[in-house]
Amino acid sequence: MSSINRDELRLVLEFYRNMGLSSIYMDEFRDEKSGKTVGVEEKTEALEDLRKNIIGDCRKCRLHEGRKNIVFGEGNPDCEIMFIGEGPGADEDIQGRPFVGKAGQLLTNLIKKMGSDRNDVYIANIVKCRPPGNRNPLPDEARTCMVFLKRQIEIISPKVIMVLGNVALQNLLGTDMRITKVRGKFHDYNGIKVMPTFHPSYLLRSPKDKWLTWEDAVAVLKYLGKEIEDQPAAGRRA
Ligand code: SF4
Predict the structure, then answer these.
(1) Which is the CATH superfamily of the domain at 63-223?
(2) Which residues surround ligand 1 with Cβ inside 6 Å?
């Protein structure tokens, strides 16, 4: 993240506004929904407040019993793309960071292929504590923890959310649809574009489907108007 502070940033944007580029000024400092001033620092502070003062040492569901660490999520609070998985696994529980195991490496590779790195995007999960034995989160656990994720999304306000796997898809969108039916098409979460795609753990088991995930990523990049170096070819196997 840039080391420029908020006052310096404001001066730069004031300069551009005085040059007649008022849209840059508005985009940087106005939240479209609330009309309030929102910048990187406010987002960072709001996330820190959520982590320390609201989640704290959360014991609202049974998943706290076996956890080593709460895995809050990490990345750029001012990102365009947010990735949401289902929950921490063993490696994530130990390190307190999302997607750091083998599946995480696959996600990191995808992010790189999309022209970004992990510091450009934000990565989180439906539940913040590891379900025992890596089982799926139960509906009441997901429902309880989603309050925190919803607040994270509200603060970050990404342009696109890529949901990874059925658990993330179904809990975020409140649907029983499955990834295989809905991947590749944009959905909506409170005005934010949502692209469902396969969970990296599935891709470790079924690498033949990696090209489908790349197709989904390309659709996201096109929506964001970004350059795409490696265009997918229909039916290609990665
Ligand atoms: S999974 Fe979420 S709701 Fe449950 S204890 Fe952990 S932080 Fe709290």
Answers:
(1) Uracil-DNA glycosylase-like domain (3.40.470.10)
(2) 55, 58-61, 63-64, 70, 127-129, 141, 144-145
